Known about the structure:
Elements: H1 6-10, H2 14-27, H3 40-58, H4 68-80, H5 85-104, H6 121-124, H7 128-158
Helix pairs in contact: 2-3, 3-5, 4-5
Amino acid sequence: MPGRDTQAIASLSVFDAIDDFLEELERGSARDRDDRPFAPEAARELHWCLMGHVSAEFGSLRLGEVDSRDVEELLHELADSGVALPRRLALADSLRALFDYAEGRGLVDDNPAEWIEPGDEAEDTEPESTRFDRVLSFGLRAATAGFLLIALLLIAQSL
């Protein structure tokens, strides 16, 4: 980000940081955590995630305003709306890459996506109310089947 002064850096929006990061990515100068250039598939994934959900959710915020709670909330909202775990993992990785980039340039002090997991519990479990509804439904069906069986036995005996 040549030519930016300290005040401009302090007010840098997430959208501007995404734009700068993706420009470096296209030039091949952006590096991953292992100091390697991003593979073409990873670059496409970064572009899709950052210009989609991340830009829509955080784009107007200043880069330093985004914290780990914001990242967790976004991932949980996506899980609740049915976004698959692999897509949420890609989004979490993209956020980590963006903030690694920003941290490496002194734009943020730490990476708010560093320790965030995309809530895979949403894939494996269901809300307690849904479990209760399923158990109640099963119980009612079992009771209905039992009553029908008793009624059939009583009708058979009366014949």
